[in-house]
Amino acid sequence: MNVSEIIKPENQVFCKTKLMTDATLSYCPGCGHGTAHNLTMEVIDEMGIVADTIGVAPVGCSVLAYDFMNIDMTQAAHGRAPAVATAISRLWPNKYVFTYQGDGDLAAIGTAETIHACNRGENIVVIFVNNGIYGMTGGQMAPTTLSGMPTSTSPYGRDVKTMGSPIKMTELVANLPGVYFATRHAVHTHKHARKAKKAIQKAFENTRLKKGVSFVEIVSNCNSGWKMTPLESNQWMVDNMFPYYPLGDIKVDGVLK
Protein backbone atom coordinates (compact mmCIF):
# COMPACT_ATOMS: atom_id res chain seq x y z
CA MET A 1 0.00 0.00 0.00
CA ASN A 2 1.50 3.38 -0.99
CA VAL A 3 1.12 6.67 0.88
CA SER A 4 -1.71 7.91 -1.33
CA GLU A 5 -3.76 4.85 -0.37
CA ILE A 6 -2.99 5.14 3.35
CA ILE A 7 -4.39 8.65 3.62
CA LYS A 8 -7.69 7.78 1.96
CA PRO A 9 -10.54 8.06 4.50
CA GLU A 10 -11.56 4.43 3.99
CA ASN A 11 -8.04 3.32 4.95
CA GLN A 12 -7.68 5.44 8.07
CA VAL A 13 -7.84 3.85 11.51
CA PHE A 14 -9.11 5.99 14.35
CA CYS A 15 -8.32 5.02 17.95
CA LYS A 16 -11.70 6.06 19.32
CA THR A 17 -13.74 4.22 21.90
CA LYS A 18 -17.31 3.31 21.01
CA LEU A 19 -18.56 5.64 23.73
CA MET A 20 -17.37 8.64 21.71
CA THR A 21 -20.04 9.72 19.23
CA ASP A 22 -19.41 10.46 15.58
CA ALA A 23 -20.03 14.18 16.13
CA THR A 24 -17.21 16.40 14.91
CA LEU A 25 -15.26 17.73 17.89
CA SER A 26 -15.58 21.49 18.35
CA TYR A 27 -12.06 21.81 19.77
CA CYS A 28 -9.14 23.45 18.03
CA PRO A 29 -6.71 21.02 16.35
CA GLY A 30 -4.07 19.95 18.85
CA CYS A 31 -6.21 20.60 21.94
CA GLY A 32 -6.08 18.04 24.75
CA HIS A 33 -9.84 17.98 25.37
CA GLY A 34 -10.52 15.30 22.76
CA THR A 35 -7.96 12.95 24.26
CA ALA A 36 -9.29 13.58 27.77
CA HIS A 37 -12.82 12.82 26.55
CA ASN A 38 -11.71 9.58 24.93
CA LEU A 39 -9.77 8.41 27.98
CA THR A 40 -12.76 9.04 30.23
CA MET A 41 -15.05 7.09 27.94
CA GLU A 42 -12.54 4.24 27.66
CA VAL A 43 -12.49 3.89 31.44
CA ILE A 44 -16.29 3.91 31.71
CA ASP A 45 -16.58 1.32 28.95
CA GLU A 46 -13.87 -0.96 30.32
CA MET A 47 -15.30 -0.81 33.85
CA GLY A 48 -18.72 -1.82 32.50
CA ILE A 49 -20.48 1.10 34.17
CA VAL A 50 -22.01 2.79 31.11
CA ALA A 51 -25.60 2.40 32.28
CA ASP A 52 -24.75 3.64 35.77
CA THR A 53 -22.71 6.74 34.89
CA ILE A 54 -23.96 10.32 34.67
CA GLY A 55 -21.74 13.19 33.52
CA VAL A 56 -22.18 16.91 34.07
CA ALA A 57 -21.01 19.26 31.32
CA PRO A 58 -19.73 22.77 32.11
CA VAL A 59 -19.70 26.12 30.35
CA GLY A 60 -16.52 26.73 28.39
CA CYS A 61 -14.71 24.98 25.56
CA SER A 62 -16.21 21.65 26.66
CA VAL A 63 -19.77 22.97 26.91
CA LEU A 64 -20.80 20.50 24.17
CA ALA A 65 -19.26 17.48 25.90
CA TYR A 66 -22.67 15.81 25.93
CA ASP A 67 -22.58 15.76 22.12
CA PHE A 68 -19.31 13.83 22.12
CA MET A 69 -19.74 11.40 25.03
CA ASN A 70 -22.34 8.72 24.36
CA ILE A 71 -23.52 8.39 27.94
CA ASP A 72 -26.17 10.02 30.11
CA MET A 73 -25.17 13.65 30.65
CA THR A 74 -26.71 16.89 31.81
CA GLN A 75 -25.70 20.54 31.51
CA ALA A 76 -24.91 22.83 34.41
CA ALA A 77 -24.88 26.61 34.57
CA HIS A 78 -21.44 28.21 34.48
CA GLY A 79 -19.40 26.91 37.42
CA ARG A 80 -22.25 24.99 39.01
CA ALA A 81 -21.33 21.48 37.86
CA PRO A 82 -20.24 20.27 41.35
CA ALA A 83 -23.57 21.43 42.79
CA VAL A 84 -25.51 19.63 40.06
CA ALA A 85 -23.33 16.54 40.53
CA THR A 86 -24.03 16.69 44.28
CA ALA A 87 -27.77 16.58 43.67
CA ILE A 88 -27.50 13.68 41.22
CA SER A 89 -25.21 11.68 43.49
CA ARG A 90 -27.46 12.15 46.50
CA LEU A 91 -30.60 11.24 44.57
CA TRP A 92 -28.93 8.19 42.95
CA PRO A 93 -26.21 7.16 45.43
CA ASN A 94 -25.32 4.05 43.44
CA LYS A 95 -24.51 5.99 40.26
CA TYR A 96 -21.07 7.05 39.10
CA VAL A 97 -21.28 10.82 38.79
CA PHE A 98 -18.57 13.02 37.30
CA THR A 99 -18.06 16.62 36.26
CA TYR A 100 -15.89 17.68 33.34
CA GLN A 101 -14.72 21.29 33.74
CA GLY A 102 -12.17 23.81 32.53
CA ASP A 103 -10.23 26.22 34.72
CA GLY A 104 -12.48 29.22 34.05
CA ASP A 105 -15.56 27.18 35.00
CA LEU A 106 -14.12 25.33 37.98
CA ALA A 107 -11.59 27.78 39.43
CA ALA A 108 -13.24 31.14 38.73
CA ILE A 109 -17.03 31.44 38.67
CA GLY A 110 -17.35 27.94 40.20
CA THR A 111 -14.83 28.30 43.03
CA ALA A 112 -17.46 28.17 45.77
CA GLU A 113 -19.22 25.12 44.33
CA THR A 114 -15.90 23.34 43.86
CA ILE A 115 -14.56 24.06 47.34
CA HIS A 116 -17.73 23.19 49.21
CA ALA A 117 -18.45 19.99 47.25
CA CYS A 118 -14.88 18.89 47.99
CA ASN A 119 -15.17 19.89 51.64
CA ARG A 120 -18.40 17.92 52.02
CA GLY A 121 -16.79 14.88 50.45
CA GLU A 122 -19.48 14.30 47.86
CA ASN A 123 -19.07 10.92 46.18
CA ILE A 124 -18.20 12.30 42.75
CA VAL A 125 -15.33 12.45 40.25
CA VAL A 126 -14.11 15.87 39.16
CA ILE A 127 -12.13 16.00 35.90
CA PHE A 128 -10.47 19.40 35.68
CA VAL A 129 -8.78 20.52 32.45
CA ASN A 130 -6.32 23.34 33.13
CA ASN A 131 -4.94 25.25 30.16
CA GLY A 132 -4.26 28.47 32.04
CA ILE A 133 -6.61 30.64 29.99
CA TYR A 134 -10.21 31.27 28.98
CA GLY A 135 -10.02 29.41 25.70
CA MET A 136 -13.58 29.80 24.40
CA THR A 137 -14.28 33.48 25.02
CA GLY A 138 -11.17 35.18 23.67
CA GLY A 139 -8.11 34.15 25.64
CA GLN A 140 -8.66 36.18 28.80
CA MET A 141 -6.63 35.70 31.98
CA ALA A 142 -7.88 32.86 34.16
CA PRO A 143 -7.19 32.10 37.83
CA THR A 144 -4.64 29.56 36.61
CA THR A 145 -2.80 31.90 34.21
CA LEU A 146 0.91 31.84 34.99
CA SER A 147 2.83 34.83 36.32
CA GLY A 148 4.04 36.95 33.41
CA MET A 149 1.88 35.06 30.93
CA PRO A 150 0.23 37.41 28.39
CA THR A 151 -3.48 37.09 27.67
CA SER A 152 -6.06 39.31 26.01
CA THR A 153 -6.83 40.92 29.37
CA SER A 154 -3.22 40.91 30.62
CA PRO A 155 -1.35 41.83 27.41
CA TYR A 156 1.82 42.69 29.34
CA GLY A 157 1.69 39.45 31.32
CA ARG A 158 0.06 38.54 34.62
CA ASP A 159 1.32 40.89 37.33
CA VAL A 160 1.21 39.00 40.63
CA LYS A 161 1.31 42.25 42.63
CA THR A 162 -1.98 43.45 41.23
CA MET A 163 -3.57 40.27 39.85
CA GLY A 164 -2.56 37.69 42.45
CA SER A 165 -0.78 34.40 41.98
CA PRO A 166 -2.10 31.55 39.83
CA ILE A 167 -4.22 29.17 41.88
CA LYS A 168 -3.13 25.56 42.29
CA MET A 169 -6.60 24.09 42.63
CA THR A 170 -5.54 20.48 43.07
CA GLU A 171 -3.19 21.29 45.95
CA LEU A 172 -5.89 23.52 47.43
CA VAL A 173 -8.66 20.91 47.46
CA ALA A 174 -6.27 18.12 48.47
CA ASN A 175 -6.10 19.68 51.92
CA LEU A 176 -9.84 19.26 52.43
CA PRO A 177 -10.86 16.11 54.35
CA GLY A 178 -13.62 15.26 51.88
CA VAL A 179 -11.12 14.75 49.06
CA TYR A 180 -9.88 11.15 48.94
CA PHE A 181 -7.80 11.35 45.76
CA ALA A 182 -6.15 14.37 44.11
CA THR A 183 -3.77 14.04 41.19
CA ARG A 184 -2.44 15.95 38.18
CA HIS A 185 -1.64 14.59 34.72
CA ALA A 186 -1.29 15.51 31.04
CA VAL A 187 -2.32 13.91 27.75
CA HIS A 188 0.11 15.30 25.17
CA THR A 189 2.04 12.02 24.74
CA HIS A 190 1.06 8.35 24.82
CA LYS A 191 2.98 7.87 28.05
CA HIS A 192 1.22 10.73 29.79
CA ALA A 193 -2.18 9.71 28.42
CA ARG A 194 -1.77 6.18 29.85
CA LYS A 195 -1.00 7.62 33.28
CA ALA A 196 -3.96 9.96 33.04
CA LYS A 197 -6.23 7.04 32.14
CA LYS A 198 -5.06 5.08 35.19
CA ALA A 199 -5.83 8.08 37.38
CA ILE A 200 -9.32 8.45 35.91
CA GLN A 201 -9.95 4.74 36.47
CA LYS A 202 -8.82 5.00 40.08
CA ALA A 203 -11.16 7.95 40.54
CA PHE A 204 -14.17 5.97 39.33
CA GLU A 205 -13.15 2.99 41.44
CA ASN A 206 -13.13 5.31 44.45
CA THR A 207 -16.71 6.27 43.60
CA ARG A 208 -17.64 2.57 43.62
CA LEU A 209 -16.17 2.36 47.13
CA LYS A 210 -17.97 5.58 48.15
CA LYS A 211 -14.76 7.29 49.25
CA GLY A 212 -15.77 10.88 48.51
CA VAL A 213 -14.31 13.30 45.97
CA SER A 214 -11.69 12.17 43.48
CA PHE A 215 -10.11 15.19 41.77
CA VAL A 216 -8.19 14.60 38.53
CA GLU A 217 -6.49 17.63 36.98
CA ILE A 218 -5.27 17.44 33.39
CA VAL A 219 -2.82 20.15 32.38
CA SER A 220 -3.45 20.91 28.72
CA ASN A 221 -2.41 23.32 26.02
CA CYS A 222 -4.44 26.03 24.30
CA ASN A 223 -2.59 26.64 21.07
CA SER A 224 -5.18 29.11 19.74
CA GLY A 225 -5.37 31.09 22.98
CA TRP A 226 -1.62 31.00 23.43
CA LYS A 227 -1.12 32.04 19.76
CA MET A 228 1.10 29.06 18.95
CA THR A 229 1.10 25.99 16.77
CA PRO A 230 0.04 22.77 18.50
CA LEU A 231 3.64 21.55 18.70
CA GLU A 232 4.87 24.89 20.04
CA SER A 233 2.10 24.98 22.63
CA ASN A 234 2.92 21.46 23.84
CA GLN A 235 6.55 22.42 24.32
CA TRP A 236 5.56 25.67 26.04
CA MET A 237 3.33 23.66 28.36
CA VAL A 238 6.21 21.35 29.27
CA ASP A 239 8.62 24.24 29.81
CA ASN A 240 6.29 26.58 31.68
CA MET A 241 3.10 24.91 32.95
CA PHE A 242 4.65 21.74 34.33
CA PRO A 243 7.18 23.49 36.61
CA TYR A 244 4.35 25.42 38.30
CA TYR A 245 1.78 22.62 38.03
CA PRO A 246 3.93 19.51 38.57
CA LEU A 247 2.46 16.23 37.42
CA GLY A 248 1.79 13.38 39.83
CA ASP A 249 -0.29 12.33 42.80
CA ILE A 250 -0.92 14.89 45.54
CA LYS A 251 -3.29 12.89 47.74
CA VAL A 252 -3.90 9.15 47.52
CA ASP A 253 -6.32 7.12 49.63
CA GLY A 254 -6.95 10.13 51.82
CA VAL A 255 -3.27 10.73 52.59
CA LEU A 256 -1.27 13.72 51.35
CA LYS A 257 1.92 12.77 49.52
Automatic annotation (TrEMBL):
It comes from Maribacter arenosus. SUPFAM superfamilies: Thiamin diphosphate-binding fold (THDP-binding). It comes from the Bacteria. The lineage of its organism: Bacteria, Pseudomonadati, Bacteroidota, Flavobacteriia, Flavobacteriales. The keyword Oxidoreductase applies. Residues 66-217 form the Thiamine pyrophosphate enzyme TPP-binding domain. Keywords: Oxidoreductase. It holds the Pfam family TPP_enzyme_C. InterPro entries: 2-oxoacid:Fd_oxidoreductase (IPR051457), THDP-binding (IPR029061), TPP_enzyme_TPP-bd (IPR011766). Gene3D superfamilies: 3.40.50.970. The keyword Transferase does not apply. This is 2-oxoglutarate oxidoreductase.
